[in-house]
Specification:
Layout: H1 20-33, E1 38-42, H2 50-58, H3 66-70, H4 78-81, E2 87-94, H5 104-111, E3 119-120, H6 129-148, E4 153-156, H7 164-170, E5 175-176, E6 182-183, E7 191-198, H8 217-221, E8 227-229, E9 232-233, H9 239-245, H10 252-255, E10 261-263, H11 267-270, H12 297-301, H13 305-311, H14 321-340, H15 343-353, H16 358-368
Parallel strand pairs: 3-10
Antiparallel strand pairs: 1-2, 2-7, 4-7, 5-6, 8-9
Helix pairs in contact: 14-15, 14-16, 15-16
This protein binds cobalamin and iron/sulfur cluster (2 copies).
One iron/sulfur cluster binds near residues 217 and 271.
Organism: Sphaerotilus uruguayifluvii
Cofactor: cob(II)alamin; [4Fe-4S] cluster
Subcellular location: Cytoplasm
């Protein structure tokens, strides 16, 4: 393909190339057909985000997520990650399952007061989003290539060292909330982000205005005080980190606050008033799978490793492995035991104590000690 047959990389529109504004209108239509609720375009200059990234790393807020430190400032430099990139197309994909009731936030909060129930974060109840978002972004790239011819691109969703929230904010998909996630007036924050890095100088969008104002509901709602200041998250305290990313023992002082949350956490998002506008997915991929909502802690505790692997096939939960899954459940069962005194819980813990490895055994002992 000759240069004059496509949108020029330096931003000029050569004779015969499609009009970039009209092309972007088409791209938006395709994105909607593919299940994306929002789409926007930004350039690759994230220099103003670099001090925040460095401060976050220097404070040690990434804990044991070595992959966050490994790439340093490359996270804020998309053109170093994929040479030739001049624009990033960011997309949002809502993940509330189809048919979610308008009162879903109250329903989710009510679960936390059912100590025997296992609470898995909403985003993780269906198919692994990495695959869904990446596959659909690749479709988007293919449609664009069919229109303008081959072009340089890469698709990402949580898969590259890149500041996705920053990019999406600059592309006008929403603003960064005080809980650090991206949110939008018409979509809340219950969506995933993904990106298409392109070597096409498409017109960029304007960033969205922030609308948190004086609200601090997410900060107040966080069970472990992980949002240490507006826009600053100490991941080491975040239940999402503790249950998903963190290997090894869960700090004892944070265990009680985890309640019955065994995979991820939604509290800061449930508290956010803008999430009354959260959208449901147009895709069946995020439908709730069996066992992922409404199951009891003891039902999930009964899954052996083979059962865990079978039931989490294609789910994001699979990647934490059975050992971390059991560790998380032991903490939640300990919390339920403290709260209810239901002897069946203590029995189930004791029955598993003998065959447990050192990590699980320590968590079981802690759990049993929650009540005399
Ligand atoms: C690492 C990570 C985590 C970590 C850390 C989260 C975090 N806020 O950093 C943990 C495991 C805790 C986590 C949890 C969750 N995550 Co996460 N996570 C990521 C990941 C891979 C990187 C985020 C990152 O770069 N963090 C680094 C810090 C530096 O970034 P930051 O908080 O945005 O900080 C900026 C500013 O706040 C400021 N700043 C921060 N600290 C400080 C300190 C000082 C002193 C200063 C001056 C400035 C400053 O500067 C920074 C740069 O601008 C992204 C995917 C990606 N590649 O971007 C997904 C991502 C952010 N996560 C996502 C989701 C869905 C979640 C959960 C909701 C999952 C769940 N239900 O359990 C929770 C929400 C917790 C929360 N409130 O953030 C989505 C968010 C979608 C959206 N609507 O925004 C993403 C985008 C994944 C995706 N592709 O969809 N996550
Ligand atoms: S996900 Fe949960 S623990 Fe993490 S910051 Fe939000 S409310 Fe706090
Ligand atoms: S709860 Fe309030 S402060 Fe937090 S993100 Fe939502 S609007 Fe912003």
């Amino acid at each position: 393909m000759k240069d004059d047959e496509r949108i020029a990389r330096d931003g000029r529109t050569p004779a015969g190339a499609p009009d970039p504004d009209r092309l972007v209108v088409r791209v938006r239509e395709w994105a909607r057909e593919l299940g994306f609720s929002q789409i926007g375009i930004a350039d690759v200059h994230l220099a103003t985000a670099e001090p925040g990234l460095l401060a976050w790393l220097e404070a040690g807020f990434h804990g044991s997520m070595q992959y966050m430190a490994a790439h340093g400032l490359r996270r804020a430099r998309p053109a170093e990650l994929v040479p030739g990139t001049v624009r990033v197309i960011s997309v949002a994909m809502p993940y509330l399952p189809q048919g979610t009731a308008p009162g879903w936030r109250d329903d989710e909060r009510a679960r936390q007061h059912q100590p025997g129930e296992a609470v898995i974060s909403v985003y993780a109840r269906g198919r692994d989003y990495h695959k869904v978002v990446r596959a659909r972004l690749q479709h988007l790239a293919d449609r664009l290539a069919a229109e303008i011819g081959p072009f340089g691109h890469r698709v990402f969703c949580d898969s590259a060292p890149v500041l996705e929230v920053e990019l999406a904010g600059r592309a006008g998909l929403g603003w960064r909330g005080k809980h650090t996630l991206l949110l939008d007036r018409s979509a809340g924050s219950m969506f995933f982000l993904g990106e298409l890095f392109v070597d096409l100088a498409l017109p960029v969008d304007a960033p969205a205005e922030p609308h948190c104002g004086r609200c601090s509901a997410c900060i107040d709602a966080c069970p472990t005080a992980a949002i240490v200041a507006p826009y600053r998250l100490d991941a080491r305290r975040c239940i999402s980190y503790l249950t998903i990313e963190h290997d090894g023992p869960i700090p004892v002082e944070l265990r009680a606050a985890m309640g019955n949350r065994i995979y991820g956490c939604d509290d800061c998002q449930l508290a956010c008033p803008w999430n009354k506008y959260a959208r449901t997915s147009t895709l069946a991929d995020f439908e709730v799978r069996p066992g992922m909502s409404g199951a009891t802690l003891l039902q999930l505790w009964a899954w052996d490793e083979a059962g865990f692997l079978r039931r989490t096939e294609g789910s994001p939960i699979r990647r934490i492995g059975h050992a971390r899954w059991r560790r998380n459940l032991a903490v939640a069962i300990g919390n339920a035991w403290r709260e209810t005194g239901d002897a069946v819980l203590a029995e189930a813990l004791r029955a598993a104590r003998d065959g447990a490895d050192a990590l699980l055994a320590e968590h079981i002992d802690w759990a049993l000690a929650q009540r005399a």
